[in-house]
Specification:
The complex is a heterodimer.
Chain A (H helix, E strand, L loop, with lengths): L14 H21 L4 E4 L5 H6 L3 E3 L1 H10 L3 H10 L8 H12 L3 H6 L9 E5 L5 H13 L3 E4 L10 H13 L1 H8 L5 H23 L10 H7 L1 H5 L4 H20 L9 E6 L7 H10 L2 E6 H4 L11 H8 L9 H15 L3 E7 L12 H9 L3 E6 L9 H16 L1
Chain B lengths: L10 E9 L3 E8 L4 E8 L4 H15 L4 E9 L11 E2 L2 H12 L4 E6 L4 E6 L5 E6 L8 H11 L6 H5 L13 H13 L4 H17 L7 E5 L1 H5 L2 H10 L3 E2 L7 H16 L1
Parallel strand pairs in B: 1-4, 4-5, 6-9, 9-10
Antiparallel strand pairs in B: 1-2, 2-3, 6-7, 7-8
Helix pairs in contact in B: 2-9, 3-5, 3-6, 6-8
Classes of the chains: A alpha/beta, B alpha/beta.
Chain lengths: 412, 268
């Protein structure tokens, strides 16, 4: 029998506390869903989670479930079930994986947390800042469960954010209050909302500290580590346990910096990952880059859970601003400037653009940006074709050849 | 194959082996960059064995005129070559191989069995950038093979057939299966097979010119061009200027790998 190759991925100790925290989160959701002890709101990943928590909802994020379906590689088995009822293989593979999971009554949450199924929603609340697909996704469950589906429709391609943008978005947030009061059975409490937003803001600052520590050379954390450790920032923002978790993680990473220990031994190249992870290949990618003494130090994806706008005095303006400042809803010229800052701050040697077939909004190679940016900055790039969840759309050999060719070009 | 001084059994040889998706190419050069042997054979399913057999054949072809001092492997199967001292991507090796023959700023278009690449080099031979096709048969040798199969034509009959006409049908589909359906429609209308074959070659070219503006001098390489040299003529018509084909266009990756082996050996 062939000897198993030794992993080059360095373990982060804080992964233990993080797993416990995530288990607690899912256990609470499961208890509420199975006993009726609490109301559950489904929320898109960058939806108005703070507002929902202020009403006492336990908040569940199906995009997180999508990522788990991808990383567990169940997605390819589940997507066809959604395709068969008319959801195209060309639309979001988070959506099709999740709907397929629901139809097949098969979720990795069973094995991980003992949950028979995903927690049934009392209300579905979206923000289309990610894409239109999240709304269509939630509307599937609206029809299945006959529960209300409401949300925020965010504009796209925004350059500078103006007061006109904010006024409209604040209005949309406030318009949710009556239905949230009705479903939760609680009156809106502005002081409670302030507390939650403040906690969420602290979480954002902690998460930003985690990501910014990768500016150090060698970086104590990789993009692949960060996609795992962002869990609390995604599902528990507005909950003080997430704030505490990032204090723990930052302390560990600072230890690495002090001792000069990089996440990748002998770090030679520093890459930026633009676009979604290929969830089912996360481990392979982490091993591959480590084997090439290359560290993917930063990404648009992980930075998309930094919500500095939440620091605004008015919590509604904070939410409106934070959820509209995102890279994904901004103009091409904003994106170029953003990348300029990232390349400078992290001393990036090359950029990897992931063209995710079923996720056009997170595939920023499609309007000429890579060529424009390389011409302007001199930073070489490569575009790999793949997908966030649907591995049928990914060629391992092509991707690895392109990663290696980019490294050779930098060495040349 | 050899040029220059008479080879001796004491000569050190440098080996480049390109394990492509369809074919394996192996080149032996000596210290003066003279080619001593060139071997091509189907990659098959056992890349390790194919590489070893190719080397044995190459040594025979060279008249056992030297011993291999260093080997660089490339291509999809590059990590399966047990006797290789180093492995590099075919993107890098094609660049080096082409620049050896055409030492100036060029845009290389390599059309392989299952993928194609555009590689831009500056006037010093340094790579400026590269692109690969999307993971699809369109624009690759696999497309030509599928079309030949559908038309009931042997692969090596495609080039002479296409030369019989200046006319061609337009195959517009990105999808190989849809293109085969398009062919059915043309056959039903009684279109001459030669025009369909020429159209199939143009379809490959369309997929390539969609990848890159192809600035400057264009160089075509790869097995598809080696076996169907008419593609260079049609390509030239398409872009409105001449294109170049280096000697042994199927071997540029292996040649580049052999030259890198020599260079590495010199540096060591």
């Amino acid at each position: 029998m062939a000897e198993e190759k030794k992993s080059l991925i360095k373990k982060i100790r804080s992964a233990g506390p993080m797993r416990k925290l995530m288990a607690a989160y899912f256990t609470e959701l499961n208890e509420a869903a199975t006993t009726g002890s609490g109301k559950i709101a489904w929320c898109t990943s960058v939806g108005p989670a703070e507002l929902l928590r202020s009403f006492g909802f336990l908040v569940y994020f199906p995009e997180n479930h999508g990522a788990v379906l991808g990383s567990s590689r169940l997605a390819a088995d589940l997507i066809p079930a959604a395709n068969a009822i008319g959801y195209s293989p060309d639309i979001c593979s988070y959506l099709t994986s999740d709907v397929g999971s629901f139809l097949n009554k098969n979720t990795p949450l069973t094995r991980a947390f003992g949950m028979e199924t995903v927690p049934k929603a009392d209300i579905l609340v979206f923000n289309t800042n990610q894409c239109r697909d999240v709304k269509d996704w939630f509307q599937f469950y609206e029809r299945e469960w006959n529960v209300p589906c409401v949300g925020i429709d965010t504009m796209r391609g925004i350059g500078d954010i103006t007061s006109e943008h904010l006024v409209g978005l604040i209005g949309q947030h406030k318009a949710l209050i009556p239905i949230l009061e009705k479903v939760s059975g609680q009156k809106f409490d502005i002081d409670r909302l302030r507390e939650v937003v403040e906690s969420s803001y602290k979480c954002t600052k902690g998460w930003k500290n985690v990501l910014r520590i990768a500016e150090k050379k060698p970086s104590p954390i990789t993009f692949f580590d960060a996609t795992i450790h962002m869990g609390p920032a995604v599902v528990l923002r507005g909950d003080d346990r997430a704030v505490q978790y990032y204090d723990t993680l930052v302390a560990e990473l600072e230890e690495r910096v002090t001792s000069g220990e990089g996440a990748v031994d002998g770090e030679q190249h520093r890459f930026y990952w633009e676009g979604m992870p290929v969830w089912g290949k996360l481990r392979e990618h982490a091993e591959f880059f480590a084997g090439k003494k290359s560290c993917v130090v930063a990404s648009t994806y992980c930075n998309s859970w930094i919500f500095e706008g939440l620091g605004a005095e008015d919590p509604f303006e904070g939410m409106a601003r934070a959820y509209t400042e995102l890279f994904i809803v901004r103009s091409e010229s904003f994106k170029e400037k953003y990348l300029e800052g990232m390349v400078r701050d992290y001393d990036i040697s090359g950029i990897i653009y992931h063209d995710a077939k079923t996720c056009p909004n997170n595939s920023n190679n499609r309007y000429g940006l890579p060529l424009r940016f390389t011409e302007k900055s001199g930073v070489p790039h490569v575009v790999i074709n793949g997908d966030l969840n649907d591995l049928r759309l990914y060629s391992e050999e092509q991707a690895k050849t392109q990663f290696e060719a980019l490294m050779e070009q930098i060495n040349d | 194959m050899s040029e220059g001084k008479k080879p001796t059994s004491q000569d050190l040889l440098y080996c480049g082996v390109d394990i492509g998706a369809s074919a394996t190419k192996l080149v032996l050069v000596d210290a003066s960059k003279n080619v001593r042997a060139m071997i091509v054979r189907p990659s098959g399913v056992d890349y390790k064995a194919t590489a070893e057999e190719s080397l044995a054949d190459a040594l025979l072809e060279s008249g056992n005129s030297g011993k291999v001092a260093r080997t660089v492997s490339t291509g999809y199967g590059r990590h399966n070559v047990k006797f290789a001292d180093d492995s590099l991507t075919e993107i890098h090796c094609h660049g080096v191989g082409c620049y050896h023959y055409i030492p100036r700023s060029i845009s290389i278009v390599d059309i392989g069995g299952q993928d194609n690449k555009v590689i831009r080099l500056d006037d010093k031979g340094h790579r400026l950038d590269f692109k690969m096709n999307r993971k699809c048969a369109a624009g690759t040798g696999a497309f030509i093979e599928e079309m030949a199969l559908r038309l009931g034509v042997e692969i090596d009959e495609m080039d002479p057939l296409a030369r019989r006409t200046d006319k061609m049908v337009r195959l517009s589909s990105f999808c190989t299966v849809f293109a085969k359906t398009e062919i059915l429609a043309h056959l039903r209308k009684g279109v001459n097979v030669a025009e369909i074959v020429r159209g199939a070659f143009m379809s490959v070219i369309h997929r390539v010119v969609e990848m890159d503006p192809l600035a400057g001098d264009v160089v075509l390489t790869g097995g598809v061009v080696a076996h169907n040299p008419i593609i260079a003529d049609i390509f030239s018509q398409k872009i409105g200027r001449p294109v170049e084909v280096p000697p042994h266009p199927q071997f540029t990756g292996a040649m580049g790998a052999a030259l890198i082996a020599l260079q590495q050996s010199t540096n060591n």
